[in-house]
What we know:
By secondary structure, the protein is of the alpha+beta class. It has helices at residues 7-22, 53-66, 86-92, 95-106, and strands at 29-32, 36-40, 46-50, 76-80.
Amino acid sequence: MxxxxxxxxxxxxxxxxxKAILHEFRPLWIVGDGPWACLALCKRxxxxxxxxxxxxxxAKKEIDKFGCGSFCKTNHAVLDLRTMSSDDVFMALSKxxxxxxxxxxxxxxxxxxxxx
Length: 116
């Protein structure tokens, strides 16, 4: 981080950004301290934040290799919080998970492009 931000403020800022962007996906947990998000989108969304892209990609490589849990469908992605939107997250979902979210949103009158 640049400027006068402390590490603690940066962690809060990035976690806040992740919560704001991902609120419709109801993340199970968000951990970490950077702008690069490694997302596990299989059963429930879990998010690991990293300071550098290569760290997030290494984490994704590990969960691709070993899985993210008993419901793992290898639906994992790396996105930059500074430029991503909820639409980017939606497009990273498998077709099956996209269908599940469309059905959920249809019942509430929302769809993926309304989530910002």
